[in-house]
Write a structure and sequence with these properties.
Elements: H1 13-16, E1 39-43, H2 51-60, E2 63-70, E3 75-87, E4 93-103
Catalytic activity: D-glucosamine 6-phosphate + acetyl-CoA = N-acetyl-D-glucosamine 6-phosphate + CoA + H(+)
GO molecular function, one term: glucosamine 6-phosphate N-acetyltransferase activity
Protein name: Glucosamine 6-phosphate N-acetyltransferase
Length: 106
């Protein structure tokens, strides 16, 4: 991430996620801190899309868009989105909704 880019959320949150329940296996092994050779897992940043759209999502505090960037190519190759929904019929309890995971096809 470049110094002038603003992340959508604190990148340290990705280190706090419990990945122990993951049942997928990869060879070679991957992890959030080592997603693959030349790849980095990070929050969406201002430079990744229209600034107005980014600021709207960031301001709400309910969007967590995470990307995998191929740092060799300088391109985003995968994304995942978590949206926090406030359930009004349950006294505004918060529920995390995993919206999508997309990979860039070759």
């Amino acid at each position: 991430m470049k110094p002038d880019e603003t992340p959508m959320f604190d990148p340290s949150l990705l280190k706090e996620v419990d990945w122990s329940q993951n049942t997928a296996t990869f060879s070679p092994a991957i992890s959030p801190t080592h997603p693959g050779e030349g790849l980095v897992l990070r929050p969406l940043c201002t430079a990744d899309l229209n600034r107005e759209s980014f600021e709207h999502m960031k301001k709400s505090g309910d969007y967590y868009v995470t990307v995998v960037e191929d740092v060799t190519l300088g391109q985003i190759v995968a994304t995942a989105t978590l949206i926090i929904e406030h359930k009004f019929i349950h006294s505004c309890a918060k529920v995390g909704i995993h919206i999508n995971v997309h990979e860039k096809s070759e």
